[in-house]
Hints:
With 297 residues, the protein is an alpha/beta fold. Helices cover 38% and strands 26% of the residues. It has a single domain, classed as Spore Coat Polysaccharide Biosynthesis Protein SpsA, Chain A (Alpha-Beta Complex), CATH 3.90.550.10. The protein contains 9 helices and 11 strands. Strands 1, 2, 3, 4, 5, 6, 7, 8, 9, 10 and 11 form an 11-stranded mixed sheet that branches. The radius of gyration is 19 Å and the shape is globular. The two termini are 34 Å apart.
Amino acid sequence: MQPKISIITVVYNDVAHIIETMDSVIHQTYPHIEYILIDGASSDGTTESIESKIASIASITHRRESEDSLYLEARLDSNPDFSFKFLSERDTGIYDAMNKGIDLATGEWCNFMNCGDRFYNLEVLGQVVREIEGFKKTMKDMPAVIYGDTQIMYDEQNTKILYAAPSERKNAHKYTQRFIHQSAFIATNIAKVYKYDTKFKIMGDMAFFLEIYNKGGYVFKKITCIVCVFSAGGVSGRLSWKTFIEGCAISFRYNVFISVYYALRYIFWVIPRVLVRNAIPNKFRNKARVIFGKKYH
């Protein structure tokens, strides 16, 4: 029997992009999907847009509403193997919202396709499942995390493929995350044990994956697939002392020298590179990022 995949979308006040992200999940050709949407009690119409979209294509089987929370479950009219879970309530940040998604997940694997991003094409989940079935036949222990490559989108005209690190590389994920979060599939039973550390506000995904890899000792496996289209420009892609401090704190957990390396690299490579990039006129900036930016994570 083919596995159920839990796709989790976290959103807050992004009515402009939520339907595009939802459509990239809803129209996947793979049938066995549990789609979980976690909304942080948006005030810009996002909550209403999600509920309206679900109601227009699915039959609502459960609904619970209070003064400060909305939760509903539904089944896609065209495919009873596709289910929705939608929770809208205040949270303490993105990683708190992600943990709520993990709590609701019942699929064998979960993926975080957050608002503004989308699957690379409508065949992605089918391809991922075929690779998972192949691992079941050839590997003694199934991986805890499966990941692929990512298309980075700077704007409609400027995109590139960012290739994730090969899983065969020694210590590929020991000190840093070598793939884009949205292009990873995590075994749900393991995600429920580790979850995201909510004291981190930007780098919690790095802390999450490093803990699974180092403390859990689990296997990560790369697949030959471009999984998602990731829109550049979020908070994790900008210069931030919070990013710097959180990155140092996470790497320090596993190797003090790596923490020093991380700090030096941020100061002498990341900051100058971003300053130079920002000095380039806007109309050339994204083109330069495609040509001169890194191709491998």
